[in-house]
């Protein structure tokens, strides 16, 4: 239950802070390679649509012709290839190779994964919502068939990804937003994200008048990702007029019917900082 605040082998791999995904700068000269720019010097993009591949945080692949990335500023990008390059994240050590680590979609940059090389033909900024969709889809893009196994109940170990999920245990408050509404979480347990945007299937007008809501996970895990069955439930409140009447005697006939309102959750993604 959350009290309203008046105050926002998978095809996917979350990369650690010490990067497994390397942005490889291709030096133009030997002297340039031996004299890297000081860390304190600001990097200037060679064009308005160029992604800085140094310090990449996350890579996903939901389709064979592209990948999605988070740069070190938490900005989401999509890189498109000249030809289909499936299974990049299943290979060892996927990395971006580009001159001085700038990816502009000129055809001179590439993604290298094992023995596979994919030429990048476009680099596009995308929304956080779109990035979350790709991150969620990448987990089911390539189903894996297993042999006969004995299944033990472990559903509560599912945590999802902070790129498109939040844990209800760490929700601090909620408020309305243009997209639907926003929840505040503990960033320590949410991949560093403090606020998440929640989009619902209907208008959920009851939210305006309800001080309390709660979340229901379709998988009964306490994790909300916009999966089927994830929903927002508006807690019914007691009308103070009816309370006053009931204290003096029987309620009028018939009483007002106050039912639990449910709103299906369609999408979850971190709010812009």
Percent of residues in helices comes to under 10%
State the separation between the terminal residues, measured CA to CA: 26 Å
What is the string of SSEs from the N terminus onward?
EEEHEEEEEEEEHEEEEEEEHE
The largest β sheet comes out as: 8 strands, mixed
Radius of gyration: 24 Å
Q: How many β-strand stretches?
A: 19
Query: How are the strands of the largest sheet arranged?
Result: 2-5-6-7-11-10-8-3
Q: Give the tally of structural domains.
A: 2
Please state the oligomeric state of the protein chains shown: single chain
Percentage beta strand: 25-35%
So how many helices? 3
Shape summary: elongated
Structural class: mainly beta
Overall pLDDT metric: 76
Structural features:
273 residues; single chain; 2 domains; elongated; 33% strand; seven-stranded antiparallel beta sheet; mainly beta; eight-stranded mixed beta sheet
